[in-house]
Amino acid sequence: MNKTGIKNWWLAIRPKTLTAAIIPIAAATALAHRHGVAQFGIAFCALGSALAIQIATNLINDFIDFDKGADTEERLGPVRVTQSGLFTRGQVKAAAATAISLAVLFGAPVVVVGGWPLLTVGVISLFMAYAYTGGPWPLAYLGLGDIFVIVFFGLVSVCGVYFLEAQTLNRDAVVLGFQIGLLAAVLIAINNLRDVAQDVKAHKKTLAVRFGVAFVRREIMMLIVVAFALQLYWASNYGWVVGLAPLFMLPLAIKIVRQIARTEPSRAYNQFLAQSAALHAGFGLILSLAFLVGNAAK
User: Fold this and answer.
1) DSSP 3-state percent helix, strand, coil across the chain (nearest 5)
2) Distance between CA atoms of residues 242 and 288, nearest Å
3) 44: part of which helix (H) or strand (E)?
4) Which of 50, 55, 164 minimizes the C-alpha distance to 107?
């Protein structure tokens, strides 16, 4: 494969979205390490599986959105490889199947350790990689994408990995999963806000299409506010090092909310999307580091 081919496949897997798979596992493992139960080998396998599922979801989304007319030449977001003709539908579909196979391969040790609960989660996650945009009731086309992201890229990812390593669940993992999921949902909300005009034409009933631009602007603000407000939980239970550390990302969060409030949906939202990815990653990594170096839990 030449350099152009590699570059195009790199474009196809949407590398800027992959932090949505990485951050939950990093945060869950840091929390498990704080509790003295981290298992880095299992975390690595979970990471490989999660990345493969994310890539498969992106590739499936690429050719299904093209099939349904959601991706056209009027698209404001980054290039999609099926719509642009860089790869055929069959090539993208085959790549998605390969990603799913890798997810199963990396997931096998996870299932051995986690048993049937993790097998169930894995099967549902693989199914959702398709059901997000495919099938008779595609979540993204019904306005359920935001909830999907909170659940699967927050609660399920964090709680699942923590359970793998600790063999139990607790309130800490649930709170952490909720925070990570809320900030991941900011990405999908901004994406849908940018694409609202095209989604109307494609009958893709995102929250922006159903309830309007003002509603999603308020949604984004609330997602961020709640994620940061939950730092009070960590401050009260783990001390102020853990509680205050992610506030370093607060100026970026405020900037994102202000920009979205002042800017009509357009290509400018691609920059806001990149900023929200940085917010999600920065918040998760700083909180993870705080778990590792902060004062002992009360």
Assistant:
1) 80, 0, 20
2) 9
3) helix 40-67
4) 50
The model's pTM is 0.86
pLDDT tens figures, 3-31? 677 888 888 888 878 888 899 999 999 99
C-beta separation of 286 from 248 below 8 A: yes
For residue 296, the model assigns a pLDDT of 44
CA distance linking residue 203 with residue 209, whole number of Å? 9
Supply 2's token pair. 């030449």
Determine the Cα–Cα distance for residues 241 and 67; give it in Å rounded to an integer.
Answer: 49
Tokens 């040790």 — which residue? 109
Residue 283 host element (H or E): helix 269-293
Round to whole Å and give the CA distance between 44 and 28: 12
Rg for the chain (alpha carbons), in Å?
Answer: 19
Q: Spell out the alpha helix ranges (H) of 195-249.
A: 196-201, 207-211, 213-229, 231-238, 240-244
The secondary element (H helix, E strand) that includes residue 149 is helix 145-150
Domains of the chain: 3-293 (1.10.600)
Tell me the angle at which helices 231-238 and 171-194 cross, rounded to the nearest 10 degrees. Answer: 160
